[in-house]
Amino acid sequence: MTGSTRKPREGTSRQTGAPTISDVARLAGVSPMTVSRVINAERNVRNSTRDAVKAAIDQLNFAPNRAARSLAGASQLRLGLLYSNPSAAYLSEFLVGSLDQAGRSDVQLVVEKCELGDHEREVVERMISSGIDGVILPPPLCDSRAVLDILIGASVPTVVVATGCPPPQCAAISIDDRGAAQAMVRHLIGLGHVRIGFIAGNPNLTASGRRLEGYRAALAEAGRAFDEQLVADGLFTYRSGLDAADELLELENPPSAIFASNDDMAAATVAVAHRRGLDVPGDLTVCGFDDSALATTIWPELTTIHQPIADMSRAAVEMLVGMLRGKRGEAVIRHMTLDYTLIRRQSDAAPRQRPPVRI
Amino acid sequence: MTGSTRKPREGTSRQTGAPTISDVARLAGVSPMTVSRVINAERNVRNSTRDAVKAAIDQLNFAPNRAARSLAGASQLRLGLLYSNPSAAYLSEFLVGSLDQAGRSDVQLVVEKCELGDHEREVVERMISSGIDGVILPPPLCDSRAVLDILIGASVPTVVVATGCPPPQCAAISIDDRGAAQAMVRHLIGLGHVRIGFIAGNPNLTASGRRLEGYRAALAEAGRAFDEQLVADGLFTYRSGLDAADELLELENPPSAIFASNDDMAAATVAVAHRRGLDVPGDLTVCGFDDSALATTIWPELTTIHQPIADMSRAAVEMLVGMLRGKRGEAVIRHMTLDYTLIRRQSDAAPRQRPPVRI
DNA sequence: GAAATTAATGATAGCGATACCAAAAATGTC
DNA sequence: GACATTTTTGGTATCGCTATCATTAATTTC
Fold first, then answer.
1. CATH number of B177-306
2. pTM of the model
3. Closest CA in chain A for residue B292
4. Top CATH class, A177-305
């Protein structure tokens, strides 16, 4: 209402000028505590008192100080974000999203590196004992049995991101890996490719299996037979991609398109093709998955599947906060699936009329 | 280090478990006030003290409580991080470092893309008028005259990272690009290489010039003549590296080693070598610069110069915070040079007795 | 080398709210 | 009406951090 001239408090130079709960109390002739009760809609306040306080609040145009509130009351949540060594590009996007959301939700994010190996136990336990409220696990940690077991054992609320097979005790954010792979293969079939090679990912990561399923599904729905020979094993590393691509191109009847389970292996495939004198995409179509930085670094730029990484990490933070701040009762474990996008760049094309001549 | 059992404080049930400034103080053997000073990058703290406190902060994984902080009076700083399109790997590391430090210093980092071109003015001005307190410029923006002029004109405290030639009005973090390049070429000479090719970087970036200087200096100190032909132009992109490498390997008398000004171009050089049937490092030694993720992604892994990118961005945030929060009037503009490391991997070797036969 | 100056640290007192418990007031019971 | 209960209300102690000033240590000055 009225501007109500508040006389500037003398003394320290720190006052902000905004009315405080004490100002309200003085005006209403009650104690600050009572004002707090009114603000928080607690029951045990007589109506007459409540009305007086409310009047004072209106008159001063008082609004509680959020900082003071969270300091005194509910403690600030701290979420742990453990990462191993995903592609650096993945991590940075992931961080941007999660930090952004952490700011919005007013929670603190503790980011820590956790190499897979002997130290993982130590790192995770230190994080737990340092009083973290919940943990977010991006790949590849989201599929680490060891890490998951420690967290689940300690009943730490956890959100796994981009795993193909989330443990029942964890919340999960993911994309439809299977569907995405299927879409890519459909695309290749649509382009006219008949023999389509596939480079599988690290079998320890559940997403690998999902992507392979998608490949098979697309073949099946097009009435194509599944040819064991056209699937090579990979580990998601560039180096493994080199071997896998060699294996596929060495075949009697090599594929005219190769779909690698991630961009690193797709890049390796491009390198192998070039070494063999094959033009990409003229002689060989190569597609990746992830839309990592590498996809646009190399030449030709890769046609690949884009994951909304930042959105996924944002969602992970939000979900975790929901689980932690959510009232008492049922910790509704939720799963969430975000949309992927097929990005066409320069590494795919229709196959030549005749299969390229092997040199 | 050790897990340091933090004893649960007794008393009220309100404690959160998160380490506080007092925990850090106790561990470091100083007063809480001193810890506060370190966090806020204030000046009057002895280096030894600062280091001890930082160690304690790391050990406890401490991050200040925002609520308490804003209650106590400190306003939250907002720093702008403008980026254009450096190598994606570079950016991600840069982000990891700066976001981490931003969390520790409790400043908000506003990350925004600023493509070089017509819009730069718009983007920068928008950022300024949105009330940003300071700006961090990683390459290549750190060398953009246009962007710098706007910022300097508006007297926005700015830290440039990894430029070869920082404007006097800005603080700067860098490594010794010239010395690093010189060290690498010295290494190649030591290996026995005589004809050493060099792929220059984008001429708009001052660091490019520094690296070329280092190349020439190493040659000069070894009493080798400088051969114009052995220097090819590049732009720091993979694609430009493809062309540059082709140019060098096309020479009548091609080099037995190629030193590219960054890893992307070195990776491209490896690809070209392979396409030409050259073994790396058997027939051709290839070295890069930056130690980006790409260096260890491809095969063979690149011998390169490691820049502590994350540390540099961390330092940039810290320095900016110091300039902004530091007491004592005059903003002492500082420059800081961090150490580089020559990392030997699998892409370098002594030259063959005779130059490889061209196919 | 003692005094004057400056830098580095520590001690104390809040910031604006809530938690917890004790005191006071209102209500109910016989 | 005296006593047990239940509601309201107030007092006090934090929450985690920083402002401010006092104190101590390190430098400089003459």
1. 3.40.50.2300
2. 0.76
3. A88
4. alpha beta
